[in-house]
């Protein structure tokens, strides 16, 4: 796929030549799992998208530092290896890696009878990306008055499935349920893969001040990671359309607003902080983006307020 | 631990500056799990060594390409997080990383109720190391007449536990069994951590032609990975002392010799190929090493013959 991948060493890994053109190359790595979204995949018997989830989740994680993905390794573990199921999982991994220009360089498929039961499996991923040291995005220049933009998510992405499963169920019959608010079934809404924001954000990385990937912990826990001390973010409800699946979960589960924004991305998968003067060109470059709030001084009311 | 580790980005990963001094730096990565050695740890209620296993396994894997470890990430998954157990696992990871000068840069601890039961957990690791492109060990210069050396293992390392458990059991009471041939209990022999060969081999990497880390697949599957076409290796039985735990498994399980050498390391955890003229200085530098065989022409009798 890329000339940087060298002939394999024969173990479950790989060799990748550091790309030229970096003065002070910094490797950015992340490790994560798909979590209990796997139970949705199992209930639906659909395993070709969870690989997309873990790759795109990982790509977005390192993107918050300004990093471009280089290579990815996967870890799949089952009680008894099911070659058909594993081929589906790998198809998802492979598709997503191709789409983001990342080499699927290796991985381990572990058979562990007794630990995993039936067709249960776990899937984790490891990514390594690269960024020029002076170009690392760290949010340090963020100040009150800066604009907060959001890029839409495709659904729950890879987080909030414990609450979602509690409200909507996790059986095969729960997955085929339909509600007027959804265009498809519950299962289709829940299995929708995590999207990557690399293509949207790569062209504008030098134009922005900070990024927050809205994963576990929702708005409340993820946005503060990119904020310097003394600053907070105010998010304006109604500035974007909350996805129907979240409205359904909130209504059926009678979940408080604060909890919804702490658990789910609510339709915004990536939050961008930029100076106000950059907003017009950012909106032009990323037509899906919306201004969803602004940076304020931290008045001790919480780093993220939403109303 | 190292100045190359940059301030964390706030997600479960990390940033690591590529070390200076490389002309064409190549990243060597590997992903692996501890496998069913975890069941031995559970039976013994001893979780502070499995971290050592996965780190050293990974370090040895990338060492076969000539790579020095840079950083490591772990993936731990449980049904319900047990902070005491996880602290023990991380202690092992951390100790081993320190010993090999590798930064434990991040990781993910996933709670997945329903997938893992009771105190069951899975542990996988991901390592990235570095090697100068021109210094990659690839065995290409290996030719008939070259010497084959071995460095001793500490036990099963991280492979062969399915067979070992079948023969010796995997209950707490099986673990406290004692046999005259063993100095300690069965559990003590089985839980002994995988050792790293980095300190032994780093000083002599330019003196050798190829390395094979004896993991799953034993001698039979691992040695050919470092051999160029047309060559084979003959291993001389009796050239080293087979560890008592392997003798016990073979005797109790009535396992054929060929199977033993295909499943286990039999007391040799790393195989080194070098030209005969280098052997005296290699043995001086690595007093534990032994000449255990030689490279021959491949006569179609198998890439690895043992007798």
Plain-language structure description:
Two copies of one chain form a homodimer. The first copy, chain A, has helices at residues 37-44, 50-63, 83-100, 161-168, 172-175, 186-191, 198-201, 218-222, 244-253, 257-263, 279-285; strands spanning 5-6, 13-17, 25-33, 68-78, 103-111, 121-132, 147-152, 210-213, 231-235, 268-274, 290-297, 304-306. Chain A is α+β, with helices and mostly antiparallel strands and 307 residues long. Chain A folds into two domains: 5-135, PurM-like, N-terminal domain (60s Ribosomal Protein L30, Chain: A, 2-Layer Sandwich); 147-306, Phosphoribosyl-aminoimidazole Synthetase, Chain A, domain 2. A six-stranded mixed β-sheet of chain A has the order 8-10-7-11-9-12. The first copy, chain A, has a four-stranded mixed β-sheet with strand order 3-6-4-5, covered by helices on one side. A two-stranded antiparallel sheet of chain A has the order 1-2. The relative contact order of chain A is 0.18.
């Amino acid at each position: 796929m890329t000339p940087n991948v060298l002939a394999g060493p024969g173990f479950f890994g790989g060799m990748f030549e550091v790309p030229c053109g970096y003065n002070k190359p910094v490797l950015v790595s992340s490790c994560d799992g798909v979590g209990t979204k796997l139970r949705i995949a199992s209930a639906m018997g659909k395993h070709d998208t969870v690989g997309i989830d873990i790759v795109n989740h990982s790509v977005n994680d390192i993107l918050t530092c300004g990093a471009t993905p280089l290579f990815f390794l996967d870890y799949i573990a089952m009680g008894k290896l099911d070659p058909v199921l594993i081929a589906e999982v790998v198809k998802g991994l492979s598709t997503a890696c191709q789409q983001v220009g990342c080499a699927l360089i290796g991985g381990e498929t572990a058979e562990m009878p007794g630990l995993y039961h039936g067709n249960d499996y776990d899937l984790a991923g490891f990514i390594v990306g690269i960024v020029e040291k002076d170009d690392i995005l760290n949010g340090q220049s963020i100040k009150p008055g800066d604009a907060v933009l959001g890029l839409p998510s495709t659904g729950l992405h890879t987080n909030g499935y414990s609450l979602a499963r509690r409200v909507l169920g996790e059986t095969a019959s729960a997955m085929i349920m339909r509600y007027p608010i959804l265009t498809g079934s519950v299962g289709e809404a829940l299995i929708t893969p995590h999207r990557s924001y690399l293509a949207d954000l790569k062209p504008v990385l030098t134009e922005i001040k900070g990024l927050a990937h809205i994963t576990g912990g929702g708005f409340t826990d993820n946005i503060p990671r990119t904020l310097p001390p003394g600053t907070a973010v105010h998010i304006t409800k109604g500035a974007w359309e909350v996805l129907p699946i979240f409205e359904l979960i909130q209504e059926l589960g009678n979940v408080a607003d604060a909890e919804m924004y702490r658990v789910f991305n609510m339709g915004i998968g990536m939050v961008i902080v930029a100076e106000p003067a950059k907003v017009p060109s950012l909106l032009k470059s990323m037509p899906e983006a919306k201004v969803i709030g602004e940076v304020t001084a931290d008045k001790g009311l919480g780093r993220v307020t939403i109303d």
